[in-house]
Write a sequence for this structure.
């Protein structure tokens, strides 16, 4: 019995030495669960607040200012953009700069002051039903609260003979997803995240596998340059992944009825940029990893946050600042906005530019980082 424990203790000591002699894997194993808990715990926050709101106030009266103060004080909305007309609000919604828009016509204050009804137009980005439904409820609540305040003032001035009617008529219009189908929000997001996961898995083990199998030595003695090797690793997977773009978009249209509202050519071109960056990221992980286990952990550290921090399942606007800004470190965050913009909104290149340029910069940086990190040596 004693000898059995001694033999087992010897094995335990041997395995422990293997663990501590591989500091990269040890650090990933220890740090990753805590980081995941922090980031993903923040990501699942359900409270919707401070939704970006664009306002076009053509009335410029006490009544319109009171209404805007109510919207700002509600906690649901944060006035981030001031528009000059209704068209500018729609442009901001197309670009994804705001999630809602409030248009107050010129005659709003005059109608309120004369005892009539002031009509306002409220636009909601319906591509995310979770946000849209909360935005609608908040807009109706603010409008009713302001109406009650105006009614009380009228009663104080006119007495009991006043006809009771709500002085503010709020017209709410859902854009991009008028039927509030959740599939319209989920399918474009799944296209982006599935491609992110697949490209990482395809390439994360590319170089590290050859290092473990010893075939990297054969590449070292060849005249192949670093950038040629990296491109050679990426391009075959680009063709496979690009085919999957067409298949997933087609399946979304045929099986779930999510049609592409914008340019398919633009979607294909921007998907190519995203795929190059994602595949390059996989090669970079494979380059800096010494074992396939390290590559697996590092890939998981990117893939798991991609489901939550990028805005696939939970609105990014709900997240605390740490989780919100961490999402900008993921290329899929930008691609999600691009895919949803093209498929649901029919957005063009210029409307999506604020999402296109950071994704393009990321792809270039990742590729050159892969070339720089790869050394033709063991």
């Amino acid at each position: 019995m004693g000898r059995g424990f001694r033999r087992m203790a010897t094995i335990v000591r041997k395995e422990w030495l293997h663990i501590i002699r591989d500091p990269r894997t040890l650090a990933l194993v220890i740090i990753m669960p805590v980081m995941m808990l922090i980031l993903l715990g923040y990501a699942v926050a359900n409270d919707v607040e401070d939704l970006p709101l664009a306002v076009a106030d053509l009335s410029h009266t006490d009544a319109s200012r009171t209404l805007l103060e109510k919207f700002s004080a509600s906690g649901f909305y944060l006035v981030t953009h001031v528009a000059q007309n209704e068209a500018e609000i729609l442009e901001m919604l197309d670009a994804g700069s705001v999630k809602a828009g409030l248009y107050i016509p010129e005659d709003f204050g005059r109608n309120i002051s004369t005892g009539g009804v002031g009509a306002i137009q409220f636009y909601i980005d319906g591509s995310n039903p979770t946000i849209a439904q909360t935005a609608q409820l908040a807009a109706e609540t603010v409008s009713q609260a302001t109406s009650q305040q105006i009614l009380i003032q009228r009663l104080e001035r006119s007495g009991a003979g006043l006809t009771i009617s709500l002085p503010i008529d709020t017209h709410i219009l859902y854009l991009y997803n008028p039927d509030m189908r959740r599939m319209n929000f989920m399918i474009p997001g799944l296209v982006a995240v599935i491609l992110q996961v697949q490209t990482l898995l395809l390439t994360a083990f590319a170089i590290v596998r050859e290092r473990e199998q010893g075939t990297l030595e054969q590449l070292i003695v060849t005249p192949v340059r670093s950038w040629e090797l990296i491109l050679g690793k990426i391009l075959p997977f680009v063709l496979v992944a690009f085919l999957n773009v067409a298949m997933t978009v087609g399946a979304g249209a045929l099986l779930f009825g999510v049609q592409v509202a914008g340019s398919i050519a633009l979607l294909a071109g921007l998907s190519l940029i995203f795929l190059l960056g994602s595949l390059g990221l996989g090669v970079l992980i494979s380059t800096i990893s010494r074992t396939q286990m390290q590559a697996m952990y590092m890939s998981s550290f990117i893939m798991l946050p991609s489901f939550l921090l990028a805005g696939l399942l939970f609105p990014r606007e709900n997240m605390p600042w740490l989780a919100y800004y961490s999402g900008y470190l993921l290329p899929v965050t930008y691609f999600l906005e691009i895919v949803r913009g093209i498929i649901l909104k029919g957005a063009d290149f210029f409307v999506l530019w604020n999402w296109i340029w950071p994704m393009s910069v990321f792809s270039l940086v990742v590729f050159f980082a892969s070339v720089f990190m790869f050394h033709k040596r063991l």
The beta strands are 51-57, 77-82, 100-104, 118-125, 168-175.
